[in-house]
Amino acid sequence: MTELPLDDLFERYESLYARTVDGQLIQLAKPTLADLERTYSITIDGQKVTVNRAVPSTDEQGNVLRDDQNDVIPRQTTIYDAANLRYQGQPNPIPILCHQNHMKPVGVCRVCCVMTGNEYRSGQKMIPACQHPVNQDNMVIHTVESRERVKVLGQECVAGEFVKDQARGLVELLAANHLHSIQVPSQKKFENELLTVAQRLKRREGQGSIPRLPLLLQRKPHDEERVDQSSEVIAYDANSCILCDRCVRGCSEVKPFKVIGHTGFGNKARISFDLGAPMGQSSCVSCGECAISCPTGALTFKTSVYQAPDRTGKARDPWVEERRSFWMQLGKEPDLQIVPADELAAIPLFRGVPYAFLKWNEGGVGRLRLADREVELCRQDTYGSTAFIIEEGEIQVRRDRQVLAQRRRSDVLLGPRPGAAARRVAEQDPNDGLVGELACLGHQPRSASLVARPGSSVLILKRNLLYMLQRNREARRILFPLYQRRALLVFREKGELFKGLPEDLGQACIDFLFQEQGQWEELPDAPDRPPRPVQFLQINPGQKVIRQDTRAEYFYIIHRGHVSVEGIDQQGRSLIRDYMGPLRHFGEIGLLSDPAVGGAETARMLAEVMGGPVRAGRRTGTCTALDHVELVRIHKDTFRGLLKAHPPLLAHLRDWAVQRLRKNRQTREQIGLQVEPFTEPGLYQGQKLMVLDLERCTRCQECVKACAETHDGVTRLVLEGNRFGKFLVPSACRSCHDPLCLNGCPVDAIHRKTGKHTLAIVIEDHCIGCGLCAHNCPYGSIHMDSRHARRAGQSERIATNCDLCESLDGNPRCVHRCPHDAAIRIAGYDLARRVGLQPEGSAADEQRWQEQHTG
Amino acid sequence: MLAHAQNCLEFFEGESCGKCVPCRLGCQQLVQLTVHLRQGGGGSPEAVRQTVERLGQVMELTSICGLGRAAPNPLLSVLEHFPGELKAPTRKPEDLK
């Protein structure tokens, strides 16, 4: 045995090692990629489960996180994850208070503690399931549901009862200190999870009462001094706060504000705003995330978004535009009612959305009932921020007056009809039921008109509700297969791949993919699962989709967002070759250069064009997401099957790949690095870039004055920004293809103006001033304005941006007023052309723009 | 002995960091109970014993660190070694502070 220096010993035995539940020393190591495949076999409540050692880590919207090498970032599988697998199809029995699926676990409430092993000896302790990793083979776990018999301090008992006893003890402690009143059902504002857990764990007692305390616990009285009413939007009652940390994580992990933290320790510990300021005087922006996260109602909304009075002092109607539009069509007032939060909470699709959010946004869902006439819900080629769920009757999808499809109610979304026998879920097509979500979430113009038929009843949803749904695991399970199908259908319709091919071929290809796609799944739940043939993915900005020189495994279709293609040439220079937008595809070159996929002939042809040593089946470039990208990914084997079944597609793709490679070579020789100044500052995003020709501009500031005069004396145009050739691109809203500012608005106040060919992003009056859109805008185009007097129930600031105000000649005022014709509004591709640059992507952009805006 | 236990428990209450529920709230309740016992309230010896043992078990099993796990020990050892210190309550709960 070799002797180690003492320091070394400490290093090894104190920092890198930890003890397992059995007290054995083990090494603590970060989970690796290999752990995603490797498994542990453990026993939960007497049933064996095989779980992966690690699972991909996800962001707050459930999207998989990747590092800059495009590898999934693994995180260790927790016992709670494993219990999800053990109780598949049933609710997880482990009670939780401080844990939520979209947050990092902290393990402070301890009610999720489980027993490990079949014997509990003095000195052992229980471990929190939400946080503790599955780090050993043959672990034995007992949750509150376990019926196994175990030994506790020498006495035999039922494991579940023992575990439940401890959780109950904790809940009793919490209830004695923090449960002060029970909400009156008619004034319910939030779901009290502490009460729910307490009632689940307690011994038989009457429903709806505060659990009796069998212990001699002192109930803490409610102290009015500890209630903070200083914020206009949110009330904070420290008496009810159980210090679960959910608001803290919501404020700094889910949202980027980092206002809420902790101060004090022991029984003086509390959450605090900016280290102890009253909420209303802190830097809190009232985004509402904390009140949505709070399990006990310590943070509650004072009023709902649409109840807060507008400038004239009246309550707002969330559906003004829709009401007007339907009124004009029907010739009388439409039957459009607000759906109450309680009704929504009972719908399967909304299960898991925090009640506080539904209540806060009460009015964000409306129900339209039609009697004897049909109504056009939305029109083809217009922008919109609503989606529709069919309750009764049907919706016709029409393009150019032709009926494309009929959609009906789906029980998967809404649950079985009251009174009707529940149909088996598998019998129904889950793609029915929800329409219009594509334009709503993808920020694209409507691809078809939607017409509700007489006698139907339709739920109209605002975008923020749909966005919140995606955070919820159960709702994603319902929505994502639907998105996948829609994405494929849109690709068939407009995709670049099928241009110039007979229509029935595109149809046949998509049908092939529909057949192959199999069951949709979110994360690899069980090990030893073959790769999914077709998968819908959401990728965050900056993440790499494919990496140069890695093995080609998938073919990709872009549904939303932009991807840049970068290649390292033989001199080791990194060149951005191109960028690609929606409805384009990539990844075919790497796949086709593998003789096993496209045949030897194809591989040979590609090798010829590429020149130099060819590495079959390897990626020729790196693709990085420039913004929020949605992709459909098709596995190599499925792709091969597709090409085999449809030889004309193979020939078409081969020509395409050859063309692309030739173009690559040209790009490399001609423009090289020039695309970068175009993609880097996001100019490709612009549909209405404010551009100043600096050779004409005399710096007279007339454009700024015009802007200020139009917008209550505060200019929204700041003459600062990037130079591009002889042009200055100031920070005015550029009406992006993919407006990042729209993501996550908690009250859906910011959206694309409705109407045909409109580009303006408008911010409505019910903006709560949280500043998330200004934070999200990479180009600094949204300004937070605090100079206007605000009404009660709202924060003091409001977001403003360029609304493309129209002057007499149709141009925005800034352009109209310029005496030297220096100010112009042009699209990104146009700007690229004016400085003598024509990346491939800009040509495609131009075509798309023409299609969309000159109908 | 109860005074001594109270001293120890107040130490633990003061040192608790407040992160996990069993330690933060458990220490508070134990101190409260001891104060009440010394004032001649609290509950029947049997109820006190049940409460302390139950709370002690919860704290020992579920606390994150050793402080919370050790905190109930002073009162537990009073119960074990000086059961005579526990007397039937002489005052009503509402008279206690």
List SSEs of chain B in N-to-C order: HHHHH
Helix content of chain A: 25-40%
| Rg estimate of chain A, integer Å | 29 Å
- The low-confidence runs of chain B, each spanning 5 or more residues with pLDDT under 50, are none
Q: What is the alpha-carbon Rg of chain B in Å?
A: 13 Å
Distance between the amino and carboxyl termini of chain B: 21 Å
- Count of alpha and pi helical runs of chain B: 5
Mean pLDDT of chain B: 88
Task: Tell me how many strands of chain A there are.
Answer: 44
Shape of chain A: globular
Mean of residue pLDDT values of chain A: 81
**What global shape of chain B is seen?**
globular
- Characterize the biggest β-sheet of chain A: 5 strands, mixed
Proportion of strand residues of chain A: 15-25%
Largest sheet of chain A, order of strands side by side? 4-3-10-7-9
**What is the helix content of chain B?**
55-70%
Give a summary of the structure in a few sentences.
The complex is a heterodimer of chains A (855) and B (97). Chain A is of the alpha+beta class.
Q: Can you offer a commentary on this structure?
A:
The complex is a heterodimer of chains A (855) and B (97). Chain A has a five-stranded mixed sheet, sandwiched between helices. A five-stranded antiparallel sheet of chain A has the order 18-19-27-22-25. Helix content of chain A is 28%, strand content 21%. Chain A contains 25 helices and 44 strands. Chain A starts with 5 loop residues before the first helix and ends with a helix. In chain A, strand 3 (39-44) and strand 4 form a beta hairpin. Chain A is α+β, with helices and mostly antiparallel strands. Chain B has five helices and no strands. The chains are: A alpha+beta (855), B mainly alpha (97). The A-B interface holds A 107-111, 113, 125-126, 165-166, 169-170, 173-174, 176-177, 215-218, 242-243, 264-269 and B 13-22, 24-29, 32-33, 36, 42-43, 47-48, 50-51, 54-55, 57-58, 60-64, 69.
